[in-house]
Amino acid sequence: MNDPTNEPMVTAKNVDLTNCDQEQIQYPGSIQPHGAMLVLSEPELCVLQASANTADLLGVAAESLLGRELRAVLSEAEIATLRSRLSKDQIAGAPLHILRKEIGSREFDCLAHRFDGVLILEFDARPQAANSSILDLYAELQSSIAKLGATTSLQSFLDLTAQQVRRFTEFDRVIIYKFMEDGSGWVCSEALADGLEPFLGLHYPPSDIPAPARRLFSLTWVRHQPDILYRPVPMIPENNPVTGKPLDMSYAFLRSVSVMYVDYLKNMGTHSSMVMTLMKEGKLWGMISCHHHSGPKHVPYEIRVASEFLAQTVSLLMSAKENAEHSEYKMQMQSVQAMLLVNVSRHTDFASSFLNDSPTLVDFIRSTGAACVVNGEVHPIGTTPSTDQIVRIVTWLSSEMDQHVYVTDCLSSHLPEAAAFADRCAGLLAVRFSKAAGDLLVWFRPETIQTVDWAGDPAKPVDTTDDGQRLHPRTSFALWKEMVHLKSEPWWEIEVNAARSLGRALLELVLERAERLSTFYDDLELSHVELDSFAHVAAHDLKEPLRGIHQYAQMLQKEYASQLDPEGASKLVSVIRLSKRMDELLDSLLAYSVMGRTIIKTDVDLNQVVAAALDSLDHRIREGSVEVAIPATLPTVRGDRVQLEEAYTNLISNAIKYNDKLAKRIEIGWKKSRDGQVLFVTDNGIGIRSEHYEKVFLMFQRLHDRDIFGGGTGAGLTIVKKIVGRHGGRIWAESIFGKGTTFYFTLSSGAAAATIL
Questions:
Q1: Which sign, positive or negative, has the C-alpha torsion 59, 62, 68, 74?
Q2: DSSP 255
Q3: Can you name the residues that pair with 110 across neighbouring β-strands?
Q4: For residue 750, what are the CA distances in angstroms to 8, 603, 606, 640?
Q5: What is the pLDDT of residues 449-496, one digit of tens each?
Q6: Sign of CA dihedral 231, 117, 212, 289
Q7: Contact between residue 205 and residue 458 where contact means Cβ atoms under 8 Å apart
Q8: What's the burial of 445, exposed, middle or buried (CB within 10 Å: 0-12/13-18/19+)?
């Protein structure tokens, strides 16, 4: 494969329509003949390069100027003026008018700018009939701007702009050309002389104004070609001595234009042109293109400056006009956004508020459907692609979006499979509202079949020479109608901005909510630690005096029973029974508090854990003739061995205790589910009514009298729930009253160390 860095630069010498989008038009190596150019070193102001026409225009041959100081062309007073301006003004980029000079019978406007490491001095010859009054131009501009400001819509603003530009430039045709997303252009306004065929409404393919030309349009406000039939004037020497390369003329007024552009203008019947750039929010929006069909036309410098000022003013006013035109819709979106954010703040999940509350996402931006995608879950509303198709779009967007907003009116041109559901989603607007790539709000628009009027067949934008070797711009601009499919109504800029604003507001809300939750969980964790410590200390410290009460009561019963009447003896028995009950409760509380204080995770074989639990309960199992079944080998998990043994011991103990069947049976096992491994202990005991499923996990809660089913404190399941929670899992009960109960529980998603199948 050839190294692209070794490929020749595309210039006027080798350009055609196959490579015009790569042409380095800033390096033409020549200028237009209506002026002369000198390239100077600083601070000496010595001539490094000169255009080949200096002998005719400046009276000194280019070859004799090389290496000489500027006084060969300018007087000492003029050089002093130049040096003064160079020291005071920033002249990097757009050329600055320095002075006006007469040489022989001609008058020149001298312009200077620094670029590419040198000082470029241009002598722009003034037209013979140029006698424009600055005051007249100012009055003309003032009147034009006042009229433009009074327009009430963007279209009327653009129409008046075209008319006013034609009025004071006197070109035969003035069009306003807007660039589309794909680089093509559309004539949205026009003012022209009688008898000319209109271009209004026509579309032009991207190759008509390729990327290099659009780049230069974004750098300068005005480009002018007085006579497209000119013969380029070469620079001597050809390369800039400072860089060793052709001179970069990106900002030069006299820069020779692309030969492809010259051919293009010839084929349009244009003899002279002037182009003014229109910018919107720092980006190239379009241009005001002036064409003269009745012969060459040289626009004086002051009119070009006035045109530049007008283009800048139009660019500034254009955004305001467009915003004003959609002001009602913009205010509606702002109002809906405010209500959406209020609704979101009332819910723990975004999807519920966006789709169920009023207003919804579809009410926010004009669309036929929308979707909220959170944590991989798709929540659609309105007419949308299927859930699987939305998932595919979101997956694609996750790698495609380099910003927080993605917008297209032709999704299938980027994601070909979208053509299958263009009736629901031909256009798409997506905004990311969290740091997660897949958390998106998406709006959909269906296909809208359109008819586009092209200036010639867009599939054949070129012609060939007689020998068929070189490709040229087309000669035919006849109307060509095309039916466009798979595209939606385009998204307005204010809609894109509104989506971006909503996304940012939601991101701030998500971050604020996350910060609040983090603080809440920190406080909650601290409270749990303090509560555990309190419970531990309280249980431990209370046991000693309680043990004393119990022992003294037993002594009284043994030594003084004969001295007590039956009522006193009964009360003493109650004291002994209640103190024992209190001791059991404190033991449960102490066990619960210790269980929450430490957790040491290792790889734990649950077969060994269950075996140990069964061994500790062996006497009760044999006494109750309980059948214990373990149908499959249990998995190995990541957890605290001691606590997991405690959990199984409590679950099996409960299964033995709450069983009134003659043939008691317990099954211990596990199964797979979406949550991973689900462990369970099931029995054929008394069962639990559904309304008590949650109550059984509360501390010291019993569903029966404490003397039934062997007594107990009612803390066992509470301890199991805490152990499971400490392992990042959850526990729940399923039961048929009178027939048995199953307790299911999971551990954290990262708890599985290895599974034996």
A1: positive
A2: B
A3: 99, 123
A4: 58, 11, 16, 14
A5: 877 777 777 766 666 555 444 556 776 677 777 777 888 999 988 899
A6: negative
A7: yes
A8: buried
| More reliable by pLDDT, 741 or 92 | 741
Superfamily of domain 132-226+256-325: GAF domain (3.30.450.40)
What CATH number does the domain located at 513-593 have? 1.10.287
Task: Establish whether the linkage from the previous residue to 237 is cis, with ω within 30° of 0.
Answer: yes
Of the candidates 615, 583, 751, which has an alpha carbon nearest to the alpha carbon of residue 675? 751
Does the domain made of 328-450+484-506 have the CATH classification 2.40.10.10? Answer: no
* Helix%, strand%, coil% for the chain, nearest 5: 40, 25, 35
CA 196 to chain centre: 46
| Cβ atoms 37, 62 nearer than 8 A | no
Distance CA 262, CA 677 (A): 74
Residues in the chain: 757
Q: What is the residue type of 336?
A: V
Compute the distance between CA of residue 631 and CA of residue 633 in angstroms, rounded to an integer: 7
Enumerate the β-bridge partners of residue 452. 482
- Please say whether the structural domain 598-754 has been given the CATH code 3.30.565.10: yes
Cα gap 649→173, rounded to integer Å: 93
pLDDT interval class at 4 (50, 70, 90): very low
Residue 248 DSSP symbol:
-
Name the residue among 624, 636, 633 with its Cα closest to residue 666.
624
